[in-house]
Amino acid sequence: MAKVCELCGKSTTAGRRIQHHHSIGWRFKAPRSKRVFKPNLRKVKVNIEGDIQGIYVCMKCYKKLRADSSE
User: Fold this and answer.
1) In angstroms, what CA-CA distances link 63 with 7, 34, 42?
2) pLDDT by residue (tens digit) across 26-55?
3) For a Cys-Cys bond, which of 10, 44, 66, 70 suits 5, CB 3.0-4.6 Å?
4) Residue 66 belongs to what domain range?
5) What is the mean pLDDT of the segment spanning 56-68?
């Protein structure tokens, strides 16, 4: 399973973890290391053209789906 929202296409992105603890002192920059940000996905059942299918959506899309269905 790919970590991708099937509605908006949100996927993993790369970034940096910055450690703001300076062990030697303030002469050097804060150490940085690479990390990944993963989307918060949830599997939901959606009616697509009369057929119920399970898709993975991010929480932002999930909240929009819930708001539309409650109206």
Assistant:
1) 12, 30, 11
2) 677 778 899 999 999 999 998 889 999 999
3) 10
4) 13-70
5) 92
Dihedral through CA 1, CA 61, CA 6, CA 11, nearest 10?
-60
Beta strands in the chain (DSSP E): 13-18, 32-37, 41-48, 51-58
> Is 6 within the bounds of a domain?
no
Q: Is the pTM of the predicted complex or chain greater than 0.85?
A: no
53 in a structural domain? yes
Torsion of CA 52, 63, 37, 2, to 10 degrees: 0
Q: Is residue 8 assigned to a domain?
A: no
Q: Is the pLDDT reported for residue 20 higher than 90?
A: no
**Number of domains, the chain:** 1
